[in-house]
């Protein structure tokens, strides 16, 4: 209904309006049209599942915001979830295109290497006993994406074709799949088992009396080969596979550098061992052929250590979301005709009656039918005080019941619950790209090719101009340059902070829907607020009923009958008031909603109008004595609606809407930070100014139509202001979309929340102040990460190339470079994790 209040008229759910975008067609790059796509990894959708291009080992690229089953020649086919399997021996991800497979008891198994096939065929029973504690099957059809490249989407787990990182599930689950971490940990400990004695062996010449090089003679090199080979050929196998994929996909990354560096060290050493005559005399060190077996093995061990630490840290960034999911109980107490039964949560259906006992978690969203209690909603809203719940009160799944008991009606289950929607929104935000990420993306595009070029130049320079042994120095410098460079640290700098920051906000009831909103929030200098449902509770009560002819019963009957067809909060107030007085509603014909003014219709053949003064001015209807009474009521902050019958004013009704508990505190906090606050409302000016005076808001725009709200926000932006708009109604949606940041109340309409970048779960404006603090903390964290990553690479690469040698005679060891490279990514992620303890 469009009274003097803001227009909250119903509108179609936007989720349905945009659903069609998920079905856009794209041509596969395996069968290009006359205008082929520039990138082979562009999103495509196959015409049918059977017509896969057969390149299922590569990751598909699709828009991250569209949870479709994507496929391309760079990704899985429509049956990708069936293709991605686990090697039963080592746990690595493999698919049905792998040449390594074996059959056991009529079932075919696939492996990452011939070595795993051999171990499996020797004792298949050893590897087919599932570990019930840790093994988690891949969910059929689950979509996975890359934390650094959210445009990469595929069905089932795998590796990113751009950076090589292990993909993560797009849908957060209560349990974390740590199979990748376990596989990397196993490889690390085995590599350490071989590389530690190898390092001690080669360092023995620096310990008096332990120069084993001379003791073992020609066997010295073969011992090194025996110790290094398991590390390089097995433990480092994933790195070589990812390196090869990076060249095939034309996306050079960290694993391109690691693979080249390890292969160069191990390959040269192998040639020097098998064909020592090929090594010139002036390339020898003290007459001995140089080996780098220990460097190749230790580099692998250190990189694996870095991967283990990184995977552990990355898992922690989703802890906030997983903790939210774990709030939901596993079972519910369902009431049936035969009594009460305990059922699993997934068995609960909409319309079920559930009993919630003292101390239990509320299973799903719904409303109280009978009983009363207090509910701790702090895990959803951040509000520490319990909330009283009586009959008809809304309750949220996952919140904790107090000492009372009540029966509730299940209204939203599964993915429709607030808890599931919060996790989904935050998950989408964590995968979105902040504008500040563009610089890192641009640098990453040319970073790896530049590093490879620097390594080649360093090798040639040391070979031609360096002191003896020239080849020794040239190899050390080139390998060190390849190993120390870390594009991964640069790529993770922003996504890890965003993921942790939005998770931290979710715990406080502040949902950041995209990274751009989080970045912009700290820059906001003007906040535009709606009145009803934003500053006030949005649950007005009938306070005044004044009929010209004294028939208050008939006046309320006419008004409530019209409002029964409206979804406006005030409309429901009048309908409820009529029900409380046992006043029957009348039939309405030719109902009309007049935006920003009121409603009209015919009742028993008479034309009835209900609305604000603007409506009656437009209709040319005089208010007479009602005008003075209306003015006095508005001066006290009440919203007035006038009723007319056949062009004659016959009475007025007034409702009052209390301020929300946190509105005054929020306004004062934001003004203290220098934020200019503007009230923008469709309510009449006198009522709006009364509320503004109570809150200390000096700029008020009242009697604003829905389309005018959008225009007012645009005017502020054109004046050079960075504007955030907070609202809750359908009529606020255009302004929310126009503002630099839209902030929706969690108790508002779906379209308002769809149009906003930030959602306050409890509808408390104090959440805006929290969002600003979170924005500042997150952006500071991102800048720190980018600084660390840039400084690390721009300082580390020249040092590895030999910058210090002319001055101090120092040449950076590849093993030191490997340790530095691994720790760089870990330091970036560890710094991002500090946001979990940010004080909001």
Description:
The chain has 840 residues and is an alpha+beta fold. It is 44% helix and 16% strand. It contains 29 helices and 28 strands. The strands form 6 sheets. Strands 8, 9, 10, 11, 12, 13, 14 and 15 form an 8-stranded antiparallel beta sheet that branches. A 7-stranded mixed beta sheet has the order 16-28-27-26-17-24-25, sandwiched between helices. It has a 6-stranded antiparallel beta sheet with strand order 18-23-22-21-20-19, sandwiched between helices. A hairpin with a 2-residue loop joins β22 and β23. α9 packs antiparallel against α10 (293-317), α14 runs antiparallel to α16 and α18 packs across α19 (569-580). It is elongated, with a radius of gyration of 34 Å.
Secondary structure elements and pairings:
Blueprint: H1 14-17, H2 80-83, E1 85-86, E2 93-94, E3 101-104, E4 107-110, H3 114-122, H4 124-127, E5 143-145, E6 153-155, E7 168-169, H5 179-202, H6 212-216, H7 219-235, H8 237-249, H9 254-274, H10 293-317, H11 319-325, E8 331-336, E9 339-344, E10 353-356, E11 365-376, H12 378-381, E12 387-389, E13 394-395, E14 400-401, E15 405-412, H13 418-431, H14 437-465, H15 470-484, H16 487-507, E16 510-512, H17 515-521, E17 526-529, E18 541-547, H18 552-563, H19 569-580, E19 589-594, E20 598-603, E21 606-611, H20 613-619, H21 626-635, E22 639-645, E23 648-656, H22 663-672, E24 676-680, H23 685-695, E25 699-701, H24 706-718, E26 723-727, H25 733-738, E27 741-745, H26 750-755, E28 758-760, H27 766-801, H28 805-808, H29 814-833
Parallel strand pairs: 17-24, 17-26, 24-25, 26-27, 27-28
Antiparallel strand pairs: 1-2, 3-4, 5-6, 5-7, 8-9, 8-10, 10-15, 11-12, 11-13, 11-14, 11-15, 16-28, 18-23, 19-20, 20-21, 21-22, 22-23
Helix pairs in contact: 5-7, 5-10, 7-9, 7-10, 8-9, 9-10, 9-15, 10-29, 11-13, 11-16, 13-16, 14-15, 14-16, 15-27, 15-29, 16-27, 16-29, 17-27, 18-19, 21-23, 22-27, 27-29
